[in-house]
Design a protein that fits this description.
It contains 5 helices and 15 strands. It is of the alpha+beta class. The protein folds into 3 domains: 62 residues, Chitin binding domain (Antimicrobial Protein, Tachycitin, Chain A, Beta Complex); 59 residues, Chitin binding domain (Antimicrobial Protein, Tachycitin, Chain A); 81 residues, Antimicrobial Protein, Tachycitin, Chain A, CATH 2.170.140. The protein has a 3-stranded antiparallel sheet with strand order 1-2-3, with no helix packed on it. It has a 3-stranded antiparallel sheet with strand order 6-7-8, with no helix packed on it. Strands 11-12-13 form a 3-stranded antiparallel sheet, with no helix packed on it. It binds 2-acetamido-2-deoxy-beta-D-glucopyranose. InterPro entries: Chitin-bd_dom, Chitin-bd_dom_sf, Chitin_bind-dev_reg.
Length: 285
């Protein structure tokens, strides 16, 4: 009897010391089950205090599954890292929202065409292709281009403004053929806008007067450099013909005067319909 409680006590000590999250938490070798496996043994192992999924202490894409005291070492697909948000979930994700700073090691990359690793977002090989990148899934790539004027941002895996991406050779001045005119400090703080000299639909906002960001008006509109606003192109003298060949006058009319949306069939208090010439089918109320 005394011997048995001593054994249990020894187990508890092992358990307690393994629960301390020190650097060597890494259960590198599948731990031997505690020798004395009497009725108390279910959750007693040297490093698996609970069932579930646990991150490796050093390698972000390695984790362990603990099940009935058994420990199984596992690896995320190449390019993904273990999401240690909940021990109940076995989840590997792309690394953007997972903090790997405390466990920075990763498996040896398995590259494929345009893919540094089997999974993930990767910059274009040509650093001058600021807005192009690849999305790789199981080693198969998809080439993606950011919306015009945006730069692929390695750190976040999304397209962002050139000044935010801070990518070498992909600054605002490289991406846009536009330089913010020098202005005084007071005016700079209003983030002045300027028409894109090459495209009526677009304009530049100069953040703090010096960092250009390209922005656009709705289809059918043009940036009016006098009012500094988007306006129907046909009302902006220098852009009146901008959509010729792309949109007909009828299409422009429709954009400028969108048809009133139809009322919902039920529960609508107002049943007024837009009056449009429609072969007398419509009876006026
Ligand atoms: C700054 O520039 C704006 C626009 O050019 C001008 O209207 C304003 O008077 C200037 N302000 C000062 C303090 O110089």
């Amino acid at each position: 009897m005394a011997l048995k409680s001593l054994a249990v006590l020894a187990c508890l000590i092992v358990l307690a010391s393994s629960a301390v999250p020190k650097k060597g938490r890494k259960p590198a070798n599948p731990p031997a089950r505690v020798a004395d496996d009497s009725e108390t043994d279910a959750e007693i192992t040297s490093s698996c205090p609970d069932d579930g999924f646990f991150a490796d202490a050093e390698q972000c894409d390695k984790y362990y599954e603990c099940r009935n005291g058994q420990i199984i070492e596992k690896l995320c697909p190449d390019g993904m890292v273990f999401n240690d948000y909940s021990p109940e979930e076995e989840k590997c994700d792309l690394p953007f929202n997972i903090d790997c700073s405390q466990r920075p090691k990763l498996q040896e990359p398995i590259p494929a065409e345009h893919c540094v690793r089997q999974n993930g977002y990767f910059s274009h090989e040509d650093p001058k292709e600021c807005g192009k990148f690849y999305y790789c899934v199981d080693g198969k790539f998809n080439a993606i281009t950011c919306p015009e004027g945006l730069v692929y941002n390695d750190k976040s895996g999304i397209c962002t403004w050139a000044d935010e991406a801070k990518k070498k050779g992909c600054g605002a001045a490289d991406v846009f053929k536009f330089e913010c005119p020098a202005v005084n400090e007071t005016f700079a703080l209003t983030h002045p806008r300027y028409a894109d000299p090459d495209d009526c639909q677009f304009f530049y906002v100069c953040i703090n007067g010096n960092t250009p960001r390209r922005s656009g008006c709705k289809l059918g509109q043009a940036f009016d450099d006098v009012s500094k606003k988007c306006e129907w192109a046909r009302r902006v003298p220098e852009c009146a013909d901008w959509y010729k060949g792309q949109l007909t006058d009828a299409e422009l009319d429709a954009l400028e005067n969108p048809p009133t949306p139809k009322p919902k069939p039920s529960g609508s208090s107002s049943r007024r319909k837009p009056m449009r010439p429609s072969k007398g089918k419509q009876i006026e109320e």
